[in-house]
Amino acid sequence: MRQYLWVLILLIIPLLAGAQQDRGRKIGANTRLLQTKAGPGQSQSFTGIEATSIAIKYQGSLDGAYIEVDGKEYPLTRDDHYSGEGKVTNLVVFDAVITQFQLFTGGITGEVEVVIIDAGSVKDPLKAPRLNKQQDECAKPEMVDQSVWREGLPEPSYNRSFTVTENIIIHHSATSNNVEDYTNVIRNIYIYHTQSNGWSDIGYNYLIAPDGTIFKGRDPGSGEQDVVIGAHFCGKNSTTMGVCLMGTYTQIPPSDETLASLSQLLAWKAEKDELDPFGIDPHPLNASLPVIAGHRDGCSTECPGQETYERLSEIRYATAETMETCGDEEPLVFTLFPNPAESYFKVELLNSETHKFVLYDMRGLPFNVHPYLVQDGIASFSTGDFAAGLYILHYQSGSELIKRRLIITD
Predict the structure, then answer these.
(1) How many whole angstroms separate alpha carbon 165 and alpha carbon 311?
(2) Is the peptide bond before 338 cis (omega within 30 degrees of 0)?
(3) CA-to-CA distance for 88 and 86, rounded, in angstroms?
(4) Residues 6+ apart with CB under 8 A from 296
(5) Nearby residues of 284 by Cβ (< 8 Å), 6 or more positions away
(6) CB crowding 102-125: b at 16 or more within 10 Å, else e
(7) What was the pLDDT predicted at 329?
(8) Where are the beta strands (DSSP E) in 268-310?
(9) Is pLDDT above 90 for 410?
(10) Alpha helices for 66-200 (secondary structure H)
(11) Please, is 19 exposed, middle or buried when counting C-beta atoms within 10 Å of its C-beta (0-12, 13-18, 19+)?
């Protein structure tokens, strides 16, 4: 009898191990799907996997939900870019392959699908170009090509569409701020977008890492990188270009290196397409959409993170400052005084028959201003209707548009 019992045990153990090590259903070359049921406040263990990132399709609430790997907790947040059925968490990316994790469900309940991604790696450590401080600020910045970061992964194959850019939309990837292998991050985002979301390609035109490295995003094929239509702006992507800052910027700001690369990229694009960094260009989602806008300006989302969104005015100004240094001719200037201005400011008019003035606040909102007095070639303006703060004065003199910073004090 004892002999039969040992035989039965030996037969059952492999079955139990096989159930625990179930790697899930394959849904893409680098992606598998594990299915389970969950209730609020539970803890579930997953083993026998090989993952460089994880996302979870869920029901209920993410309040208190997180995954734990080797004692480290990764809070789960909702992916606002996902447009399929149900709800999905943002991608949790790891610097090294993991083989097990625990899911703490928080408010998650019902059917749960765990997306397991194994992005592999490039053959050699990536020596990506960085932002060169001595580089011509007017030139197209250096960036990492798809053929470098996508090495070994399936290439996208579809008929690309292209658009004229009227609005540049800023995003954040909502991935961890602690990962250091930025090539791995973009590889996982690409797989997630294509093999899990079912998109044709990665959603953004460009992605910028915390060290300032710029990656080319959606593959334009034989077209141009900056005008291929992506999948990033609330389902209405025509006339937009998408730029994603790698990381989560709800509570911490993007790095100085990220912002420097972003400003250079935007200045190159704005100069190329004659876009006004402080301008407004209507879009089907927002009749007053800034030329440089955040994802949340189009639909209800946290993206690009509060700390990024609060810096959009600085980003517009930095872009405009870079653009002012570009061009073959010396930029036109005009005299603006006093600056700072307390109750009035004056402009020395240039030699032209027409003069138009628009004052932009740091949100990018325009205000047409008119002089209350023009005498001896000097136009005088009142500041009484404006709150204290930093503004950009656009002076259209004939065919020339010139910009100057104006500070208004109490």
Answers:
(1) 22
(2) yes
(3) 7
(4) 302, 303, 304, 309
(5) 236
(6) ebbbbebbeebbbbbbbbbbbeee
(7) 57
(8) 292-294
(9) no
(10) 146-149, 182-191
(11) exposed
Asked whether the bond before 14 is cis by omega within 30 degrees of 0, the reply is: no
Give me the mean pLDDT over the 336-358 stretch.
93
Q: DSSP characters for 8-21?
A: HHHHHHHHHHHHHT
Alpha carbons within 13 angstroms on the beta-carbon side of residue 56 total: 29
Instruction: Tell me the C-alpha distance between 207 and 32, whole Å.
Output: 25
* CA-closest candidate to residue 357, choices 398, 395, 399, 401: 395
Rounded Cα gap, residues 400 and 42, in angstroms: 65
Indicate the pLDDT class of residue 15, thresholds 50, 70 and 90.
Answer: very low
pLDDT at 8: 47
CA distance 60 to 397: 58
CB proximity list for 125: less than 8 A, separation 6 or greater: none
> Tokens representing 103?
């899911």
Task: Scan for tokens 């090509």, then name that residue.
Answer: 145
Q: Which tokens go with 4?
A: 């039969």
What amino acid occupies position 79?
Answer: D
CA distances from 407 to 156, 313, 322, 336, 386 (A): 49, 14, 19, 11, 11
Give the global pTM: 0.79
Burial state string for 319-337 with b = 16 or more CB within 10 A and e = fewer than 16: bbebbeeeeeeeeeeeebe
Strands (E), 246-354: 292-294, 336-337, 344-348
Per-residue pLDDT tens over the stretch 102-125:
999 999 999 999 999 999 887 765
